[in-house]
Amino acid sequence: MRRLIINADQLGVNAQRTHGIFQCFEFGVVTSATIVANGSGAYAAARHARERGLPAGLHLNLTEDFPVSKPDDVSSLLGMTGVFLDHEHLSAALADGQIDREHLSREIRAQVEWILDTYGAPTHVAGQEHIHTHPAVIEALLPVLDRYGIRFVRIPCEEPLPPHGYQVSEEQLLKVREINGAAHAARTMYAAHGIESTDHFRGLTLTGNSSLKNMRHVLTRFPETGTMEIMTHPGSMSGYGTPFDLDPQRQTELRMLTDPSIRLLLAEKKVTLCSFADL
């Protein structure tokens, strides 16, 4: 059997991204989403996802915006302005022993409990900038997964690498190889505790390179067996937000994921759409 999860990341980060994700779920091929607990539209997005039956996981965010916890309770995770340290600075602080591991556990627990309260049981956990593959984060996350019976995480390991049928810069490939290395180690740590993932993953090289043509290239190279997740980031047009939100790629992905030809190609390849809830 060949099964495919098409996951839209960052549901609830803002109204425009959320609107685009729901369009791709209702009129396209998105079968799963991850909710950002500290997004500006997170509460409404989580309630709407529950009402519309959108299978959703937690998009663990420890590197952008404000914490879910009280700032004083997780102060070592925060910069001078009260927002999370960015990925680079958090990684360096973890390596230097400057992060209170109780603060890390507290914020992870707060975000998991937030999604349980607003949406219900998450189907899986992924992470902003794949922070859930960092060993210290895994150690803090594992007891929470066990406590709440969460059985799946994303393992963002995109292999094999080129040829994909589309051009990927050497700089991006270098970053993808770095993420793959962390993901390999993370899979071993999670598997040792009975936490599972999909057999295959795509989306790292599609980020910034998304188009209907390139999506078709990915699908025509679907592995012979197993379940694959494709990570996507669709969104409606927005006049404000981060550079990522304002990137025209958000609308390109929306059009790509609502194009009827994708369902036809999946049927031709005998690939069944599903979600983490079906695993």
Low-confidence stretches: none
What is the CATH topology classification name?
Answer: TIM Barrel
- CATH superfamily descriptor: Glycoside hydrolase/deacetylase
N→C terminal distance: 12 Å
Assigned CATH class: Alpha Beta
Helices and strands, in order, run as EHEHEHHEHHEHEHHHE
Using the CA coordinates, give the radius of gyration. 18 Å
Topology of this protein?
Elements (H helix, E strand, L loop, with lengths): L1 E10 L3 H13 L4 E4 L6 H11 L3 E5 L26 H9 L5 H18 L6 E3 L7 H14 L21 H22 L8 E3 L9 H9 L5 E7 L10 H4 L2 H9 L2 H9 L3 E2 L6
Helix pairs in contact: 1-9, 4-5
Looking at this protein, list some descriptive labels.
single chain; 279 residues; TIM Barrel; 7-stranded parallel beta sheet; 10 helices; 42% helix
What's the gist of this structure?
Helix 1 runs parallel beside helix 9 (249-257) and helix 4 crosses helix 5 (135-148).
